Backbone:
């Protein structure tokens, strides 16, 4: 008789958990998965996918405004927020069904309940007893963080933003990361007056400085009030509005406060430490290169490990785990040159090292930049700029980083990322024939090394 009920028990049916369970089952393992919410996880249900749908909706307003430059006469337009949310909900329900079918077709047993680890091989299922497994995989993701200030419960977090009954007239966004700038663009594009408060000196900490400065300029030009070195101290009701008190002693009234101040791993109440699993900063599960925890039979992948919180990373970590353990093919994920995007307005696409990180790691680097008005806006007249940048190792000519701010940046940089993974040099970029006219061609036509401006001569 089998020693355990399952070969593998996965806790969390988000993108990473589903990918790992399906791949393990394909290798012949007997697999079960538990999910206390809807199958699909943060990305599909309350993250990447619904957010991108709202981004598309917000972009339409500028399209309507730009149409005049191309000879179109379009009458006054009005946006129907409930209709957008209903359409979004319909698509998310469809995707939830797709994920359910994928699990069923893969032979993975689904427990729709909360799971807690009892020991190295036992999982307790709320209302459904206990099951045993040779290995346990934790893939519970992360949750939005709400700051501990008085009145914080008057504000919302990203999970709540997808289900608002009406579009607020005034929005105060708190935070400077990708979620903050993305939702600032969504609300502004759909017609709300938006102010973005960030406690740091510039948004998008960790990104290339030119991208950070460039996006800040574009946000301001679009009409978003960007307030840096600013933070909230407390919130209170002011009639039907919310009064936000700031660190400088001033106060502003708004209809909605949204906190986009980071995310924390979902490890509370899982029984990890009692089972011998070590936790790191913010409660993240500590793992080795094979996603194994301090307890040999328990593994963890995705945002719960706080290694690199991106959905495709979680998926690849899950598949690498399954291939290594059940497919007998040793595989680990290379975290270098992983591309990412910020679906701000305009969006960002980036891969490899920023200029700042490259300078810290390499003795000499070359920088190439292009900043221009997109061809589309030579007729629309919109005041916006596209920025493209290459960071190159001066000794080997290898391209270390590629960065773009502007329309279609994520689509363009995805292709460029292949070149960086292959170790392409600047000379190979230069030898590539351009597609003209396109914005993407700038990545293969930049020839002049950027030189910092010389300081002004003293009087």
Residues:
């Amino acid at each position: 008789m089998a020693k355990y009920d399952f070969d593998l028990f996965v806790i969390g049916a988000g993108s990473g958990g589903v990918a790992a369970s399906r791949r393990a089952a394909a290798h012949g393992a007997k697999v079960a998965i538990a999910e206390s919410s809807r199958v699909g996880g943060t990305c599909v249900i309350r993250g990447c996918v619904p957010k991108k749908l709202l981004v598309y909706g917000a972009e339409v307003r500028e399209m309507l405004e730009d149409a005049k430059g191309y000879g179109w006469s379009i009458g006054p337009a009005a946006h129907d927020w409930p209709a957008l949310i209903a359409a979004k909900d319909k698509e998310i329900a469809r995707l939830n069904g797709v994920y359910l079918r994928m699990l069923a077709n893969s032979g993975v047993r689904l427990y729709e309940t909360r799971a807690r680890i009892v020991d190295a091989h036992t999982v307790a299922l709320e209302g459904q007893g206990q099951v045993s497994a040779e290995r346990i995989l934790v893939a519970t993701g992360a949750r939005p963080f709400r700051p501990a200030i008085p009145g914080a419960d008057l504000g919302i977090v990203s999970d709540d933003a997808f289900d608002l009954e009406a579009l607020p007239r005034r929005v105060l966004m708190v935070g400077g990361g990708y979620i903050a700038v993305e939702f600032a663009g969504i609300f502004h594009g759909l017609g709300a007056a938006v102010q973005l408060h960030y406690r740091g000196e510039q948004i998008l900490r960790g990104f290339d400085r030119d991208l950070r400065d460039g996006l800040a300029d574009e946000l301001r030009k679009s009409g978003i009030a960007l307030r840096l070195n600013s933070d909230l101290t407390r919130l209170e009701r002011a009639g039907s509005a919310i009064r936000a008190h700031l660190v400088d002693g001033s106060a502003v009234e708004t209809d909605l406060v949204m906190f986009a101040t980071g995310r924390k791993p979902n490890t509370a109440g899982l029984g990890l430490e009692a089972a011998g699993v070590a936790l790191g900063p913010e409660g993240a599960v500590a793992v080795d290169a094979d996603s194994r925890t301090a307890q040999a039979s328990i593994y963890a992948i995705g945002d719960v490990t706080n290694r690199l919180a991106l959905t495709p990373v979680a998926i690849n970590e899950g598949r690498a785990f399954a291939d290594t353990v059940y497919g007998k093919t040793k595989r680990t994920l290379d975290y270098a040159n992983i591309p990412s995007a910020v679906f701000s307005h305009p969006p960002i696409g980036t891969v490899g090292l920023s200029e700042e990180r490259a300078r810290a790691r390499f003795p000499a680097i070359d920088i190439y930049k292009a900043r221009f008005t997109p061809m589309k806006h030579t007729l629309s007249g919109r005041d916006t700029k596209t920025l493209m940048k290459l960071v190159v190792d001066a000794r080997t000519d290898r391209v270390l980083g590629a960065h773009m701010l502007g329309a279609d940046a994520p689509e363009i940089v995805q292709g460029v990322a292949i070149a960086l993974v292959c170790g392409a040099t600047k000379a190979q970029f230069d030898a590539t024939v351009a597609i003209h006219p396109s914005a993407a061609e700038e990545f293969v036509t930049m020839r002049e090394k950027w030189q910092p401006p010389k300081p002004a001569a003293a009087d």
Notes: The longest strand covers residues 129-138. The chain has a mean pLDDT of 97. The two ends are 90 Å apart (CA to CA). The chain has 13 helices and 21 strands.
